[in-house]
């Protein structure tokens, strides 16, 4: 691995104060899976009856741990549950040995905690194509069990990092019938890593009591406008995993009609998604791409992703260049419907193009001044219909090349 | 504009010796459309009866010149024809004024040469969103007409450049029934440019006599495995244009069954396509991505494009890192069918992964030594069926960021 990259200039001031979630405890350890002198295994122990929902990478080459989680996620919440994550090795593209490692780890966690292996969810993140030294993980499980603490979510956020430059956490409270439920989550991810491919991993916990199928529907729906709307470099990991655990320990029941809880969960998911972008490899600018006037929401999303993934737009943002011509290009190439002569574009509040031509109000100096901001909003109106989408990304800088062109050692 | 970028390290030794094409003459001039002290307008005059075929960008925001060419391309070859190209201004996203400029230019060329305006094809390349000063072009047409020469194809290749670092040309001869027909072409393009979006423009000439519809079918078919198989940065121009003009001046007739001519035309198209990649912005490596064993050719192509467009693979190639894990990632995310456990990968002749796992023969030192080559071949076998595809790209380097993050001036 190369030198540790510097803290992202877009990092928050510090790790947030997170509410404790009744029914969840955490422990971490330095198992030496690959990294030296840092924690690399995280265990979350979940109360009996915890409902688990999840969303996973759609990669056709997804990892053994992802396949295992997908198989287990819909099961009824019988008995306790657990999440075990290691960093340093992704256990991806490791053939049959990969599946054997997942079985060994989840089986050992189940035995240690006295729960069913079908209720143990695991993730691995780090270098791919190398067999996972799962013995180093299973050797630590007794120590992890005795270290479990409800106060350790920040150390958990540290243990799952690979080349992230800061730990990511978010939490909120929601009032339901004058009672309070709590939501807290952690994430890792900064696009892809040096020396190798990384993953986005997200774990969110709540003490609300929710049926598994309702929780799954909520998470799947909210994922569409949060994690599925961020992109650092358009490259999709083999291991992306989002798990949401509802312990029910508050005794407060949440149903599909509880808009307040949905909104709280959405806030936490969006905050974590934005933090992943703010830790994007080499990022110096946080960019929101907002598309309105699409023929449909889905087509607006295609345009927004095309803009957010364009290397030419991302380098222009890095260069603080209000290069709206490249936005026209990205709309044109996206494949979704667009009419050149109805297209209008804003950078922040500045209209730069109106109905297919440079705006009569366009002022290059003001646009250039706007681009010096750390947070940039690019807004495109397609003038076709009511479809909208919002996507978040970062700029493409020399830092990205430095991190990813470094030779592995 | 920033400083002129240095000559691509992948540039050929010099401009090739090209055969003269009977029925075609060229002239260039410095009209001052945008650039100073260099030629920026090229006129090609084509003999009566010349058949024209073309392939154009599929961008939804394509330029006025492209729309005009598309309208004219299928017409019967009545009378003489001409191609007029300016560099420095793309006349794209210029609304109704853009179409008026195209009409002004093509109309004036028609009048100067005494041909129909429906037989005048124009292209514009350079900065977008600014009205084209077409008067500067039409003011030069008499001078251009008197300067027309059959020997001026190399100067034509220079006049259409924007931030290309070398002029691109290719030619061949084909023997048909013991007679010789000639093919010669020029191209411009290096992905996208500083200060703004560029285009790929290609003009190929032959003295063979070919029916327009047969020529169009040939060009469309050959385009699929040549220009449609290159990518520098996945960003699609608003102005991409390939025009093929068959003057018939050799008197030698070519039909759809003439495999030799097809093969000659294919060689010229592929050579020009490769030259565009070798002038890719910031390129230091030329990369061939070969995919075999796909469920279909179309799906193999989707995988090949996914690999060739992946920023992580392109930065790994720049860093001379045999990072085959990123190839697995790109196959997984492409959306086309793949089976992780049937996937095999080679860098050059070195097998790095076999059937979903690191190859037993893998030798990191040998793979790293291979990556030091200037030309790199990445071969993926999907193990599913008989589908194949080949795509060409370049690496992603600091040079790309330098060129595209430069502020326009």
TrEMBL record, chains A, B:
Site residues, Cleavage: 198-199
Pfam families in alphabetical order: ArgJ (PF01960)
Residues under site feature: Involved in the stabilization of negative charge on the oxyanion by the formation of the oxyanion hole: 125-126
Positions of substrate binding: 162, 188, 199, 281, 404, 409
GO biological process, one term: L-arginine biosynthetic process
Gene3D superfamilies on file: ArgJ beta chain, C-terminal domain, L-amino peptidase D-ALA esterase/amidase
Matches recorded under InterPro entries: Arg_biosynth_ArgJ (IPR002813), ArgJ-like_dom_sf (IPR016117), ArgJ_beta_C (IPR042195)
HAMAP family: ArgJ
Function: Catalyzes two activities which are involved in the cyclic version of arginine biosynthesis: the synthesis of N-acetylglutamate from glutamate and acetyl-CoA as the acetyl donor, and of ornithine by transacetylation between N(2)-acetylornithine and glutamate.
Protein's name in the database: Arginine biosynthesis bifunctional protein ArgJ
Lineage: Bacteria, Pseudomonadati, Pseudomonadota, Alphaproteobacteria, Rhodobacterales
């Amino acid at each position: 691995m190369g030198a540790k990259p510097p803290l992202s200039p877009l990092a928050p001031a510090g790790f947030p104060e997170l509410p404790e979630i009744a029914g969840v405890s955490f422990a971490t350890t330095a198992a030496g899976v690959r990294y030296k002198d840092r924690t690399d295994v995280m265990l979350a122990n979940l109360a009996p009856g915890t409902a688990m929902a999840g969303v996973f990478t759609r990669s056709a080459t997804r990892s053994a741990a992802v396949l295992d989680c997908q198989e287990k996620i819909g099961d009824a919440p019988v008995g306790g549950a657990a999440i075990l994550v290691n960093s340093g090795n992704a256990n991806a593209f490791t053939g049959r040995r990969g599946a054997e490692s997942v079985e060994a780890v989840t089986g050992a966690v189940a035995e240690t905690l006295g729960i069913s292996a079908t209720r143990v969810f695991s993730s691995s993140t780090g270098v791919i194509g190398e067999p996972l030294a799962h013995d180093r993980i299973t050797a630590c499980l007794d120590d992890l069990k005795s270290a479990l603490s409800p106060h350790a979510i920040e150390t958990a956020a540290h243990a799952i990092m690979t080349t992230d430059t800061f730990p990511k956490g978010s939490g909120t409270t929601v009032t339901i019938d004058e009672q309070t439920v709590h939501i807290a989550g952690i994430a890792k991810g900064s696009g892809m890593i040096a020396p190798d491919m990384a993953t986005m991993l997200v774990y969110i916990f709540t003490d609300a009591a929710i049926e598994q199928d309702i929780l799954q529907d909520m998470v799947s729906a909210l994922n569409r406008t949060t994690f599925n709307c961020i992109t650092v470099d358009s490259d999709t990991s083999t291991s992306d995993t989002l798990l949401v655990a509802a312990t029910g320990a508050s005794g407060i029941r949440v149903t599909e009609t509880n808009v307040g809880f949905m909104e709280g969960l959405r806030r936490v998911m969006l905050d974590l998604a934005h933090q992943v972008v703010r830790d994007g490899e080499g990022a110096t600018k946080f960019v929101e791409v907002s598309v309105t006037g699409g023929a449909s929401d889905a087509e607006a999303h295609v345009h927004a992703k095309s803009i957010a993934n364009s290397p030419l737009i991302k380098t222009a943002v890095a260069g603080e260049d209000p290069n709206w011509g490249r936005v026209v290009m990205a709309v044109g190439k996206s494949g979704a419907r667009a009419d050149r002569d109805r297209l209008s574009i804003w950078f922040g509040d500045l209209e730069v193009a109106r109905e297919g031509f440079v705006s009569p109000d366009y002022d290059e100096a003001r646009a250039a001044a706007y681009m010096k901001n750390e947070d940039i909003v690019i807004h495109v109106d397609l003038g076709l219909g009511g479809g909208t989408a919002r996507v978040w990304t970062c700029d493409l800088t020399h830092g990205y090349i430095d991190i990813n062109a470094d030779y592995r050692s």
